[in-house]
Amino acid sequence: MTVVWAVANQKGGVGKTTTTVSLGGLLAARGHETLLVDLDPHGSLTAYFGGDPEGATGGVYSLFHQAAEGRPIQAAGAVRATRFDHLYILPASTAQATLDRQLGTREGMGLVIKRAIQGLQGRFEYVLLDCPPMLGVLMVNALAACSKLLIPVQTEYLAIRGLDRMLQTLKMIQRSRKDSLEYVVVPTLFDRRTRASTQALWELRDNYSDCLWQGVITVDTKFREAAIAGMPLPIMVPDARGTEAYARLLAALLGQDDFHQRAAS
Predict the structure, then answer these.
(1) Burial class (CB in 10 A: 0-12, 13-18, 19+), 176
(2) The pLDDT of residue 56
(3) Which end is more exposed in the chain, N or C (fewer Cβ atoms within 10 Å of the end residue's Cβ)?
(4) Cβ contact 136:96 at 8 Å
(5) What pTM did the predictor assign?
(6) CB-based contacts of 130, cutoff 8 Å, min separation 6
(7) To 10 degrees, the CA torsion angle through 221, 264, 9, 229?
(8) In this structure, are residues 112 and 144 in contact, taking their beta carbons and an 8 Å threshold?
(9) What is the reported pLDDT for 58?
(10) What gap in Å lies between CA 204 and CA 163, rounded to an integer?
(11) Burial (Cβ within 10 Å: 0-12, 13-18, ≥19) of residue 140
(12) Of 246, 28, 257, nearest to 126 (Cα)?
């Protein structure tokens, strides 16, 4: 059975793509066949691995048109290998920004990604969905397809205020799914040198303890260097501070560590 995780927040700049790439890199480095799906029309995940969202054809966008035309959804031909063993990507196109206007009201458009993943059963052990920072047909697809939702939240006042909006969206989606969706809030971009970051972390721990991973993803300049190199940080620098933080998160997600264990600060 393929494990599907969505990485979403209705605020940009909180570390969604970094989280997707880092967890995907860790899984691939451990020999797990892993697919990263770029649902964001900005295509940051696609660009990370050397793709061009502006000129891309096929990919996620093509799956929606296959569905709209009544054709079987064939995702296998849209999957691209990265230059890293066991790591693949279903790339984005900037044309995805038009999907809500073109197809958002058509029946069945909320289950395209779920059906695409079902068609890839047996090929991938893990699928990670990198979501756009807005509610629309692409985020709805991700939340319908995933078995677990990861919500990266920057340890910053305005980002925490935006968390409530994401949780309201989740409640709405859960009603349409007719089942519960496990979700995990992941504190990101934590800088222990600043009072604002520390206060934001404690606010998260005080108010969201029932769904909060108690570790933190700290600020690490190595993330930027890895992005420039087009490499997942866990593959480029296995002992980096950021790699170790995501390794702790992955252990918690896989049930290999206490979910509420506090990371050393």
Answers:
(1) exposed
(2) 64
(3) N
(4) no
(5) 0.93
(6) 7, 16, 17, 20, 36, 37, 38, 39, 40, 44, 45
(7) 20
(8) no
(9) 79
(10) 10
(11) buried
(12) 28
Q: Which residue in 131, 171, 126 sits closest to 7, CA to CA?
A: 131
How far apart, in Å, are the Cα atoms of 51 and each of 59, 94, 139, 163, 260?
A: 11, 12, 22, 30, 37
Residue 28: its H or E element = helix 16-29
Amino acid present at 215: G
Query: What is the spatial distance between Cα 135 and Cα 105, in angstroms, rounded to a whole number?
Result: 14
pLDDT for residue 262 = 37
* Residue 162 to residue 53: CA distance in whole angstroms: 27
The whole-angstrom separation of Cα 75 and Cα 176 is 25
Q: What is the block-wise mean pLDDT of the chain (265 residues), using blocks of 10 residues?
A: 95 95 98 98 96 84 92 93 98 93 82 96 96 94 95 93 89 81 96 94 95 96 97 98 98 75 36
Is-contact 166 16, C-beta < 8 A? Answer: no
- Distance from C-alpha of 120 to C-alpha of 101, rounded to nearest angstrom: 28
Give me 245's structure tokens: 């933080």
Determine the residue type at 183: Y
The whole-angstrom separation of Cα 201 and Cα 149 is 20
